[in-house]
Design brief:
Helix content is 42%, strand content 18%. With 100 residues, the protein is of the alpha+beta class. The chain is elongated and about 85 Å long. The model has no long low-confidence stretch (mean pLDDT 91). The structure holds zinc ion (2 copies). One zinc ion binds next to strand 4 and helix 1.
Length: 100
C-alpha cells in the first residue's frame, strides 16, 4: 500500500496543488467564497490548489488590475490631450464655429 501523501504541515493530504504540485491538507487547501449559480448565495468552493499559490495568484490578479487601471487613465489623458490639441489647432487655423 502506498504511503499517504502528507501536507507540508504534517497532516494527511486531501489533494495536490495543480500549480506547485505540493500536497495539501484540508486546512491548507485554497477555498473561495463564490456564488455557484445565479440564484444561489455565495458558498465556499474548494480549489485544486494550495493556499500559497492562491494567494500568489490573487496578488498577481490585483497587480494586473492596477496596471489596467493605470493604462486606462493614460489612454483617457492622451485622448483629452488629443482633443485639446485638435481644438487648439483648429482655433490657430482660424476655423470658425469652434470655441474653447
Ligand atoms: Zn501550490
Ligand atoms: Zn496542512
Amino acid at each position: 500500500m502506498a504511503e499517504a501523501a502528507l501536507c507540508w504541515c504534517g497532516v494527511i493530504a486531501v489533494g495536490r496543488c495543480t500549480d506547485c504540485g505540493r500536497a495539501f491538507c484540508t486546512s491548507h487547501q485554497a477555498a473561495e467564497n463564490q456564488a455557484i449559480g445565479w440564484h444561489s448565495p455565495p458558498s465556499w468552493v474548494l480549489l485544486p490548489m494550495c493556499i500559497d499559490c492562491r494567494a500568489r495568484q490573487r496578488a498577481q490578479a490585483d497587480q494586473a488590475q492596477r496596471a489596467a487601471v493605470v493604462a486606462q487613465q493614460a489612454v483617457r489623458a492622451a485622448r483629452a490631450d488629443a482633443a485639446r490639441l485638435f481644438v487648439e489647432a483648429m482655433l490657430a487655423a482660424g476655423s470658425p464655429g469652434i470655441s474653447s
